[in-house]
Each structure stands twice: as structure tokens, then as C-alpha cells.
Amino acid sequence: MKGNHLLSGRAVVVCYLVAFWSGFFVMGVELLGGRLLAPNFGSSVYVWGALITIFMLALSLGYLAGGRFSQRNPSMAKLGMLLAAAALTTLPVLPLSGVTLEDLAIAIPDPRFGSLAAAAMLFFVPTFFGGMVSPYCVRLLVDSEESSGRRAGQLYFVSTFGSAAGTILTSFYLVLWLELNTILIAMIAISCVLATLAGAIKGNKT
Amino acid sequence: MKNCIGLMAAALLLVAPAALAQEKLVHSERSQYREVLVYETNGERCMCFTRSCRIGRQSCINLADPHRFALNYTRMMMGGTFLMGDAPKSILIIGLGGGSIPTALRELLPTAQIDVVEIDPAVTRVARKYFGFKDGPKLKVYEVDGRVYVKRAAREGKKYDLVMLDAFDHEYIPEHLLTREFLTEVKSILSPTGVLVGNTFSSSKLYDHESTTYAAVFGKFFNLKAANRVVVARPAGLPSEDQLRLKALEYELALRSFGVDLRDVLPMFSTAPDWDTKARVLTDQYSPANLLNR
User: Fold this and answer.
1) Tell me, what's the pLDDT at A204?
2) Binary contact (B284, A43; C-beta < 8 A)
3) Cβ atoms within 10 Å of B30's Cβ, excluding its own
4) Count of other CB atoms within 10 angstroms of residue B255
5) Chain B contacts of A176, Cβ < 8 Å?
6) CB atoms B176 and A43 under 8 Å
7) Cβ within 8 Å, pair B155-A106
8) Nearest residue in A to B145, CA atom
9) Contact status, residue B266 vs residue B244, Cβ threshold 8 Å
């Protein structure tokens, strides 16, 4: 079996970095999402249930789409675009989380379905793009059949480790230091920087 | 000093097992939010959310005289209710516990409409079964999140003469109920001379943040402190010492049968800030109340 090296060494590092950050970003946003929903829907277990449902659903469909998207001319630039898409589609959360959620809470008085609708409206699209990142990375990183499992394992490790880091940093420290919107903006900015880096790197050997 | 500590430790060792042995678990049930436990000790029945009431008794009644308030903070809450001016005709209480406060108010103010918001149906169930709590048309319970209820009440233009916040326990604070935005919403459902009475924390770093948050919304407020702290605020301005004293005389007798001596509560009405006035105000954007409460 002949190797199919898509990426240079440096591009491999950036690819893992993107996967790490994507995992971080998804969980950071999810935790902040709970905070954003609380004023209008409360912080009951079903509010978290609604939020996690939407995130899992969006991720699962994102994985499917990411896999498909990777089949045509995969490149670091396109990977960067996915990360940027996840970040930029998070931007509407900033203005929408106030009055719009209040209107939604009035329209759907049942807090379970109200928070489900709110979570879907705010977080489905960015998390969908976030889900596309991992399978797309797998496509870029796998250079042979034998290494595919190892690469996928490393990729899962990096992105899930990123999720763990995003969860603990956001919930233990960031909310103690910064306002929710400040954290969101900072995370979006970091995503954009990484996306630019991925786009600029001369990754494709072919 | 060392001896003193040694003695105290010895005394505790002697007392602790005896106290534990007397404590009887009467009932426990798991709810969506927590475990609701009912214990009996020394003729008192208490609702707790932790095993052996390790921390924070939510609500207690004296079994021989269920009429009397068993917990200390309730007298400060009564002070906030009766000393500020005319008796309230409409009351909102956020957080039911065993229901001793609404039960007492129902009796003291039979014509008042009392609405209670309790998020956990298990707490309401246990209050009815073990704490003699009786709801009815004049004392209604709404099973909904406090913030959601207040927002809805504000939209419907409801007004209350008295709003009591009693939704915190020692372990966990619903952080969306301790922000400038929430207190502003509460302020908006107060009638022109409406009063807010909040049972909150007297220690930890949170004390400073909580104080500046209340000050940001209500300006000057009465700060009653014992083991708990009770905030008493009124947007229309605070009564003078004489006005407080007059009301204490008026209601002294009525409250005495509940085990509350309003004359004891009177000197607790202080407006002196004893907190760090530069502490950051808690908002919906910045509300790490549980992280600060250490």
C-alpha cells in the first residue's frame, strides 16, 4: 500500500491544532449557552438537556457532512473555512441572546420546548460546522490504510482533549474573569486566526 | 487558647454522636433537582437537601408547636414584612421550602393574596405532607423557575406589595437569580411602595458582590445580619427609625405567638455598608455566584 501524504509536517501540526481548538470551541460555547438561556428559561436539568440534545444532533449531522465534504479535493484551506464558518455563525448569538430569546420564551411557554427551540436557533448551525472539522481532518491526516486507525485515534484524542480543556477552563475560570460576550468574542477571534493560519499554510504536497 | 480549642473539640466529640443518634430520617425522596429529606431531632422536624442535614436546614417546624418559627432567619424576614409600612396585600415568595413563612403570613394577613414560586414539585409535596403547608385560592403555588415567573409577571403587569427571595441554599445558588437584571425585573413588579426582602449570604466573597448588586438596583437598603443576611429594600425610600419602631409596636403582639419578638429585630435594621463597595456587580453576563461563594 502506497502512502498518500497530503500534508507537510507543519500542516499536520496545524491540522491537529484546528481539531483541538474546534473541540475547545464547541464545549466552551455549549457551557456559555447554558448561561445565556437561564434568564428566560431557567437553569433546570431540562434546559441543559435541550442544549446538549441540540449540540449532539448538530455534531452528528456535521460529522456526516464533513465526511462527504472531504471527498472532493480536500485541502487545509477548506479546513480553515470550516473552522471560520463555525466561528462566524456563532456571531449572531451575541445580539440574539437578549430580546429574541425573550420573545421565544413568550411564544413557547413550555420551558422544555422553549429552550430546545432557543438552543436550535442559536447553536445548531455553528455546531454543525464544528462537527464537520474532525472527519475532514481525518481525511487530511490519513496517509495510508495501516495508519488510518492510528490517525483517527490521535484525532479523536486531540479534539476530545480540546473539549475537556474548553469545558474546564470556561466553567472554572473564564466565567469568573470575563463577561459571557467577551469570552465568546475572544473564542471567535481565536478561531479566525487559526482559520487564516490553516488557509495560509502551504500544506498540500500534491 | 490551645486549651480552649482542645476543650471545644472534646465537647464536640462528646456531643456529636449523641446528636446524630437522636436524628431520625422520617422521609426521603429524589426529585429532578435533588434529594428532599425530612429529619426529626430534639422535637424539631426539618427539611434538608443533604444527608444528615450536613449543611443548611431549609425549613424547620417545632413539632410541639408548629406555629412557632424554628429557624432564626425567619424573624428577620418578618421584620422586613411588617416594619416597613402598611401590611402587604399581595405577596410573592420565591422558594417554598417547608412553607413556614407563607403559612404564617396566610394566618397573619388573611386577606392578602400570596403567590409562591417553587421549582421543585417534590419540595411542595413534602411541605404539604410533613410541614402542614396548605395551599388554596389565597395561597397559590406555581411550579416554575423563579426568573421565568418574574419575567412573565412583569409582562402581564402584575404588581406585588412584597416580594420575598428565599431560593438559595448553602450548596448551590441559581446564578440567574442573583444578577442586576433579575433584581431590576423584581423591582418592576413591585407596587409603588412595594418592598423586597431577600434571604441571602452573610459570608464569603459573594457578600461583597451581592451587596453592590443590590445597591446598583435599589440604592440604599436595610442589611439585617445574623447567621444569614436579609436584605430589605424599597425603591420608594426607606422608613425612619421612628416609623420602624411604631410598626414594631403595632405588630409585636401578633408576631409573638410565632416566636418572633420584633423588638429584637428592630436594632438589626442597618443601612451602613460593611462590604467592599468596589466589588464587581453581578450581571447576566457576569454571574459566577457559586464560584465566589467559597
Assistant:
1) 59
2) no
3) 10
4) 21
5) 288, 291-292
6) yes
7) yes
8) A42
9) yes
For residue B54, the model assigns a pLDDT of 66
Interface pTM, i.e. ipTM: 0.86
Q: Tell me how close the Cα of A96 comes to any Cα of chain B, in angstroms.
A: 14
- State the best of B33, B184, B284 to mutate against chain A, taking most chain A CBs within 10 Å: B284
Measured CA to CA, the distance from residue B85 to residue B194 in angstroms comes to 9
Interface test with B, best of A36, A46, A173, A175 (most B CBs within 10 A): A175
B10 to A138, B2, B15, B54, B55: CA distances (angstroms): 64, 12, 9, 20, 21
Tell me the pTM.
Answer: 0.88
What pLDDT score was predicted for residue B1?
42
Exactly one of B161, B166, B169, B208 is catalytic; which is it? Answer: B166
Q: Do B283 and A179 touch (CB under 8 A)?
A: yes
Q: Write the single-letter amino acid at A198.
A: A
- C-beta atoms of A179 and B32 within 8 A: no
Catalytic site includes residue B261: no
Nearest CA in chain B to A114: B148
Rounded (10°) angle between helices B180-188 and B146-155: 40
Residues B160-213 have pLDDT tens digits of: 999 999 988 767 788 999 999 999 999 999 999 999 999 988 778 899 999 999
For residue range B213-271, what is the model confidence (pLDDT) as tens digits?
999 999 999 999 988 899 999 999 999 999 999 999 999 999 998 889 999 999 999 99
Q: Would you call A41 and B148 a contact, using CB atoms and an 8 Å cutoff?
A: yes
Which ranges in B53-163 belong to alpha helices (H)?
A: 73-82, 100-108, 121-130, 146-155
Report residue B58 as a C-alpha cell. Answer: 431549609
Output Rg (C-alpha) for chain A, integer angstroms: 18
Task: State the cell numbers at A62.
Answer: 456535521
Residue A135 · residue A63 · CB < 8 Å: yes
Whole-angstrom CA distances from B19 to A19, A92, A201, B249, B286 are: 56, 57, 70, 38, 42
What stretch of H or E contains B251? helix B241-256
B119, B283, B292 ranked by CB distance to A44: nearest: B119
Contact A104, A114 (CB under 8 A): yes
